[in-house]
Amino acid sequence: MNGSTGETQAREETRVSYMTCPLCEATCGLEVTTRGREVVSVRGDQEDAFSRGYLCPKAAALKALDADPDRLRAPMIRAGEDWREVSWDEAFAEVERLLRPIIAARGPDAVAFYLGNPNVHNLAGQLYNAPMLTALRSGSIYTASTLDQMPKHVSAGLMFGGALTIPIPDVDNTGYFLILGANPLVSNGSLMTAPNMRDRIRALRARGGKVVVIDPRRTRTAQEADEHHAIQPGTDALLLFAMVHTLFAEGLVNPGRLGEHLYGLEALRAAAEPFTPEAVAPRCRIDAATIRRLARELAAAERGVAYCRIGACAQEFGTLTNWLVDVLNALTGNLDRAGGAMFPRAAAGARNTSGEPGRGRGFRTGPGASRVRKASRVLGELPAACLAEEIETPGEGQVRALITIAGNPALSAPNGDRLAAAFATLDAMVCVDAYLNETTRHARVILPPPSPLERSHYDLSFYQLSIRNIAHYSLPVFQRPAGQLDEWEILLRLTGILAGQGASLPVAALDDYVAGQIIARETRQKGSPVEGRDPAELLAALAPRRGPERLLDFLLRAGPYGDHFGARPDGLTLAALEAAPHGLDLGPLQPRIPEVLRTPSGKIELAPEPLLADVERLRASLDRPQPEMVLIGRRELRSNNSWMANLEPLVKGADPCALLIHPDDAARLGLADGGRARVTSAAASLVAPVRVTDEMAPGVVSLPHGWGHGQPGTRLRVASAHAGVSINRLIPDAEIEPLSGDAILNAVPVTVARA
User: Fold this and answer.
1) pTM here?
2) DSSP letters spanning 282-300
3) By CB atoms within 10 Å of each CB, which of 135, 150, 372, 532 scores lowest?
């Protein structure tokens, strides 16, 4: 056989690979069939330890994402309006030329970072963003967390001592499921990693359980539920406080074995006193009798759980809402028990599985605040809603350069028009991104990562939020093209520049330093399985691995299931996961209180002072007049924020970007199905197609999140042909949720008129 024939056959060889889908929180297992460098098919992996063959439309579109001609495959530098492809060395030299003078003249705070949602779907981003941020020590850090889930991190941190110590519904064993502001049939969970939520909810009902959905829209999840109650957007905390009030008033508080682990019960009782069902019913539009019944049902359920998500996060009282959901679970004895809300034990990277169990330093916001409006820093970051003003406002610490990592804040952050205008005034902007999109069009340099099929994968974050304890590592399906840097290498080269070590610092040396720091920190951690061990010895034991694989292997081996570097020979290692292509089921969730706690008291803090201090603001809202019309967002099954709209398989069919409106409102405003409406807020005005539907509550309209493509200077041919409108243009950036800094994306007052 001559060389040419052999190479052709190798290119055309059909191969089956198994991987975890990197496109949403469900972590579904995929079976990917390839021929040479072409994806033939993407199917659900029937043998996957978690998803058992489930597949949603997003995963099937991985083929289109990998082959997308608009996906950037080489670094780009912009001069004026023109872009040109360059080598990696030239690109990083330009990054150094742009950033180092700004840092020298204005200090590190003049360089801001924005980390987008895809970073938590990416092993390199989860492991190598932190060293990059530490290298510069800029205080100007922004992420998508303050557009999404930060209230849950704050409430969980204050109650349990850790921002990722989040109780997860044990949905497969529960008998009563109360869902607020969440649509898990579309999101496949969300802060509840759970593939195939439709079948899980159907199984719950088939075994005699009950599902109740509280949402201003009759979502797909609500259509599968036993009950749906259309709440006034933004009033979830009032409803929950009235349920807490009912539990106290009717003697239904029964925490069970958790009683000895609760602190602040009487302070909580006093805080709930004003929120009677009669007081809150007119405001939340759920009658007092129903509120009492829901409280009684949750208390009486043998196994019940309350759960909330983004509709309950991205609102005016998001942190109080998330706190009260966990309070309800604790008061009814449904926290930390089978069928209730439980704490996963992740195999790698979880702070609540390392260190001394049962007690810790607790959680606090700060230190520091934003320069212009003095918004508190939370988990080291500032509110994304503050970014535009920090660019626009002169003075010491003014942001003059921006580095974005897999983020599109021009479409996802509040008041997108203002933010895009601010980007255009920057002295430098560098983006790690696969597309020339609405944000990266303002950059001077774009550094594209490889295809998701060309990199390994492990869900460090989502296995900390999973309804079962799971571990699944995926090898790359394809080898990276010659010359293409992996994302961790891109991030390390940026780290070298930001640290002042230059664009040509050897990546291997910096990677050794990062690995050494992580290992040394763990050996100093009291209670760690490797406490007191020699870091150099552990680093040598990980050879010859490098990059994310080396760090992941260390985290697994030092984790709760790990081999502890020989102390437990049958324990988990990365090699064991490589030998299990369908993943490993590490077992159901188990009770973890008190060992999971990291509070100073060693107890569950039912009434943290920062939350009690915010209760008066909630009480005052009872007396406010309600807007005639409010706007809420929504998510579609075929999309995930703004970053998959350029894939033809996901944008086929009816326009997903319609304004949903109730028939009574449509009749009153003279709107017809298929017509067009002008929606105006304090921030902007836009025109959208109308869909009249009784799935919306009266007085509430809805637009999906993540649209508004087709802007000048982008290269998104499919997305531009299905541009839609950006709901975030309508979201004012003047107000944020005060405890978490989260943007207020729901219950936005608007006027609606015929266009």
Assistant:
1) 0.96
2) HHHT--HHHHHHHHHHHHH
3) 532
To the nearest 10°, report the CA torsion of 647, 652, 656, 657: 70
pLDDT band with cut points at 50, 70 and 90 for residue 653: confident
Place of tokens 């970072």: 113
* Residues 377-428 pLDDT 10s: 999 999 999 999 999 999 999 999 999 999 999 999 999 999 999 999 999 9
Listed by start position, the domains of the chain span 170-348+611-619, 517-582, 626-754
Give me the torsion for CA of 479, 482, 487, 492, rounded to 10°. 130
The per-residue pLDDT for range 328-343, each reduced to its tens digit, is 999 999 999 999 999 9
Query: What is d(CA 55, CA 102) in angstroms, rounded to the nearest whole number?
Result: 47
For CA atoms 307, 606, 163, 113, the dihedral sign is positive
Q: Is the dihedral of CA 447, 415, 325, 195 positive or negative?
A: negative
CA–CA separation, 471 and 556 (whole Å) = 9
Q: How many CB atoms lie within 10 A of CB 661?
A: 27
Return the CATH number of 626-754, one of 2.40.40.20, 3.50.50.60, 2.40.40.10, 2.60.40.10: 2.40.40.20
Report how far residue 730's alpha carbon sits from residue 722's, in angstroms, rounded to the nearest whole number: 19
Closest to 639 (Cα-Cα) out of 694, 706, 582:
706
CB atoms < 10 A from the CB of 377, how many? Answer: 17
Residue 3 CB coordination number (10 Å): 7
Q: Measured in Å, how far apart are the chain's first and last C-alpha atoms? A: 70
For β-strands 210-214 and 176-180, DSSP reports them as parallel
